[in-house]
Amino acid sequence: MEIKTGYKQTEIGVIPENWKIKPLKELCVPNGLVRGPFGGSLKKEYFVDSGIKVYEQKNAIEKNAVIGSYFVDNSKFSELKRFEVFEKDFIVSCSGTIGRIFQIPHGAPKGIINQALLKIKTNEEVVNEKYFLLYFEWEKFQERIIDNTQGGAMKNLVGMSIFKNTSIALPSTLSEQNAIAEALSGADNLITSLEKLIAKKKDIKQGAMQLLLTGKKRLPGFSGEWEIKTIGDLFSISGGLSASRDKLSDDGYCYLHYGDIHGSNKSYIDVGEEYPKIPKLQVNIKSVTPKSLLNDGDVVFVDASEDDEGASKHIVIKNQNNIPYISGLHTIVLKSKDNSLVNLYKQYCFKTNAVKKQFKFFAVGTKVTGISKTNISNVQLLLPPTKGEQSLIAQALSDMDNEIEELESKLSKYRLIKQGMMQELLTGKKRLV
């Protein structure tokens, strides 16, 4: 590949001739890169109810210095003072959700890092702190600090000797570093403001759900007592056709695996629209019981979850063209007995706190919680007396969902734009000075 005039080839790609490649350790002050203490240094018996904060992974992951409930006394703090964090230090998560970085802000609680973190104190005469943070968060850099050698879903941070020597491309002047950081920070600010707006809209919708779906707030023009009915009153309940994930492919009949319900952030599946990406199972469709074939308006719950919160996870089926769709492993199918619930209302009525509380009550198990068809049939719903009120409630909530979806689509575009900017600016393809 021909290299453009004014650029050079390095071990991490083509960069401007006057840029430098520096290992992480050379961007830090002396002893500025420290891995958290061994686990034995911070056993449970050393924690106290209040005192000096112990920073955890979630502080880095959620970019929040305040959350957390682990503390040590002054004696233990003095023993582990090497691991103290200060304003402008960076903390990095090292296991599980790895590589997340957070800069300790002004006024953050005095504290030390635990064994799942490392701390970095950069040398401000060598690297602009904003440039460093943005470069560290860049996906191209993240790929180089994640250890994939063991395979599987669980990733780890590379060993400290490798980590310290991981290279960063660095503009030779702090002014150019600052210009890049400011440009990318502008994109970051747009993304952050949109994230906050989406969070606010979701909170408003959550509050509206708890009011509208319980009758605490009525829409204009409606009156009359709400009714209590069980899921068993409203639906016939059956199981799905068991097939493991490795039997699924791109050929055959659409198949709903319980993992796809857990993994979805939507309240419905539109079979027609999503057909190409729905997993398929090669099977004689005549051998599948009609109870396991999903029709428009059916509701499908999972019967197994890794936590109580997931016990009520479900999806509503949109299938107006009656495309064969098989409900699968670890699913419970609800089919309306009398169509007394509006289909759109089904997307919301199982999400009230009262309903979730019942699912948690009925869920059994330790590592994996499960719920039976019998127990689901006993879950109670508080329902409006007319389908007209159901429709208007559901439409109001759906309008909120559509607004949130539009904002999330815009957020995805902003993130893509930022990634493109990072690729241009952090490699020097585009120069700002």
From TrEMBL:
Residues 16-198, 225-406 form the Type I restriction modification DNA specificity domain. GO terms for biological process: DNA restriction-modification system. Pfam families: Methylase_S. GO terms for molecular function: DNA binding; endonuclease activity. Belongs to the type-I restriction system S methylase family. PANTHER family: TYPE I RESTRICTION ENZYME MJAVIII SPECIFICITY SUBUNIT (PTHR30408:SF12), TYPE-1 RESTRICTION ENZYME ECOKI SPECIFICITY PROTEIN (PTHR30408). This is Restriction endonuclease S subunit. It comes from Dehalococcoides mccartyi.
